[in-house]
């Protein structure tokens, strides 16, 4: 058996006129994240971590800013990433993420995020851990200008 580890990171700034989506969940907040797709930083960071662990480049290589991906749900990226992993006989051992945001409060949405991610990746909910933290008002996340996410995954083969 072979074991691989991958790290993913993504950050997007807030903007008006968009829904805030994290882990495929609509968050009740007056601002959304700016980006080509739905700007779901949580899903993007997980995709990058999975692709990195598998040695398959990054999310921008597989899902570039082209019309085909304009405003699409990032859960589609996650599903297609899982399909790529399946083709190479990888299986997901665990996913651990940290959402970095001063606002909004993430805790009411974490369970639904885990459920969405588990369903899409065809893994158990207990293989996913989602944490949230602030930066005590330091930096762009601390000033409430956006959200960043750090993800680490373990893959087996």
Number of helices: 5
Count of domain modules: 1
- Compute the separation of the termini in Å: 6 Å
Rg over CA atoms: 15 Å
Tell me the overall shape. globular
Q: What's the CATH H-level superfamily name?
A: 2-C-methyl-D-erythritol 2,4-cyclodiphosphate synthase
Number of strands: 7
Major sheet size, sense and barrel closure: 5 strands, mixed
What does this structure look like?
The chain is of the alpha+beta class. It has a single domain, classed as 60s Ribosomal Protein L30, Chain: A (2-Layer Sandwich). Helix content is 30%, strand content 31%. The protein has helices at residues 41-53, 59-62, 74-87, 110-121, 139-142; strands at residues 3-15, 20-22, 25-27, 32-33, 91-100, 128-133, 146-156. A five-stranded mixed beta sheet has the order 4-1-7-5-6. Helix 1 packs parallel to helix 3 and helix 3 (74-87) packs parallel to helix 4. The N and C termini lie close together (6 Å).
Describe the structure in brief.
The protein is of the alpha+beta class and 157 residues long. The chain has 5 helices and 7 strands, in the order ββββαααβαβαβ. The protein has a single domain (3-156), classed as 2-C-methyl-D-erythritol 2,4-cyclodiphosphate synthase (60s Ribosomal Protein L30, Chain: A), CATH 3.30.1330.50.
Attribute tags:
157 residues, alpha+beta, 60s Ribosomal Protein L30, Chain: A, five-stranded mixed β-sheet, two-stranded antiparallel ribbon, 5 helices, 7 strands, 30% helix, 31% strand
Task: Please outline the helices and strands.
Layout: E1 3-15, E2 20-22, E3 25-27, E4 32-33, H1 41-53, H2 59-62, H3 74-87, E5 91-100, H4 110-121, E6 128-133, H5 139-142, E7 146-156
Parallel strand pairs: 5-6
Antiparallel strand pairs: 1-4, 1-7, 2-3, 5-7
């Amino acid at each position: 058996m072979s074991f691989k580890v991958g790290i993913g990171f993504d950050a997007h700034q807030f903007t008006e006129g968009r829904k805030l989506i994290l882990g495929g969940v609509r968050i009740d907040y007056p601002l959304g994240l700016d980006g080509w797709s739905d700007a779901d930083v949580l899903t993007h960071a997980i995709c990058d971590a999975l692709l990195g662990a598998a040695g398959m480049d990054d999310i921008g290589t597989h899902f570039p800013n082209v019309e085909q991906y304009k405003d699409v749900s990032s859960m589609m990226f996650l599903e297609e990433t899982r399909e790529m992993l399946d083709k190479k006989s990888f299986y997901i051992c665990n996913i651990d993420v940290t959402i970095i945001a001063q606002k909004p409060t993430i805790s009411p949405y974490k369970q639904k995020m885990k459920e969405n991610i588990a369903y899409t990746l065809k893994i158990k909910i207990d293989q996913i851990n989602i944490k949230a933290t602030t930066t005590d008002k330091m930096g762009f996340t601390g000033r409430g200008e956006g959200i960043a996410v750090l993800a680490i995954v373990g893959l087996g083969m």
